[in-house]
Amino acid sequence: MIIKTAEFVKSSGKWQECPEPNIPEYAFIGRSNVGKSSLINAMMNHKDLAKTSQTPGKTQLINHFLVNENWYLTDLPGYGYAKVSKVQRKDFEKLITNYILNRRNLVNLFVLVDVRHKPQAIDLDFMQWCGESGVPFSIVFTKADKLKPNAVIKNVEDYKLEMHKTWEDLPELYITSAEKKEGGDLILDFIQKTNDFLIQNGVSFDE
């Protein structure tokens, strides 16, 4: 997919305030220091489309971007150990779960995982919840440039082994580096193929 246009649409504090759900939507989520904004910017070939920060938990709203004028990219608040109060964390969790369960044009959720770390319970639990809730998702490993290739492969295999304890079939997996702009093209190819499929099959999100 060639990115011709990518523009910020709006930030929403409630899922009901999100843009009209009439075109395909793909959301990105992960722990609050996983490199989500950097990956989005690399994929869109735009230096500061999504705001990056050294402070985990900077994204505290649902941010929508219109890409090529025919699909939404959604940047969701991070989950995990962002330096926020327990009340704020519960509010974030409520915002995220309500969005994921109620946004009827959400086609796929990309769950970002830092490839440098061993499988984390918080990520595994979140993906388990997605599976139990019937939410289509893919796993995106980030920061692959921070490790040697063999270490990346080993960590991804460790993740697969861990997930196979509870999953028969694993979702799509992507290995990415925002720094080197690697892997994002495969995600965009997936989005393009999915959008083409939706068009060919006359899928409409209008109620």
UniProtKB/TrEMBL annotation:
<keyword id="KW-0547">Nucleotide-binding</keyword>
<keyword id="KW-0460">Magnesium</keyword>
<dbReference type="GO" id="GO:0046872">
    <property type="term" value="F:metal ion binding"/>
</dbReference>
<keyword id="KW-0342">GTP-binding</keyword>
<comment type="function">
    <text>Necessary for normal cell division and for the maintenance of normal septation.</text>
</comment>
<protein>
    <recommendedName>
        <fullName>Probable GTP-binding protein EngB</fullName>
    </recommendedName>
</protein>
<keyword id="KW-0717">Septation</keyword>
<dbReference type="InterPro" id="IPR006073">
    <property type="entry name" value="GTP-bd"/>
</dbReference>
<feature type="domain" description="EngB-type G">
    <location>
        <begin position="22"/>
        <end position="197"/>
    </location>
</feature>
<dbReference type="Pfam" id="PF01926">
    <property type="entry name" value="MMR_HSR1"/>
</dbReference>
<comment type="similarity">
    <text>Belongs to the TRAFAC class TrmE-Era-EngA-EngB-Septin-like GTPase superfamily. EngB GTPase family.</text>
</comment>
<dbReference type="InterPro" id="IPR030393">
    <property type="entry name" value="G_ENGB_dom"/>
</dbReference>
<dbReference type="InterPro" id="IPR019987">
    <property type="entry name" value="GTP-bd_ribosome_bio_YsxC"/>
</dbReference>
<dbReference type="InterPro" id="IPR027417">
    <property type="entry name" value="P-loop_NTPase"/>
</dbReference>
<dbReference type="GO" id="GO:0000917">
    <property type="term" value="P:division septum assembly"/>
</dbReference>
<keyword id="KW-0132">Cell division</keyword>
<keyword id="KW-0479">Metal-binding</keyword>
<dbReference type="GO" id="GO:0005525">
    <property type="term" value="F:GTP binding"/>
</dbReference>
<keyword id="KW-0131">Cell cycle</keyword>
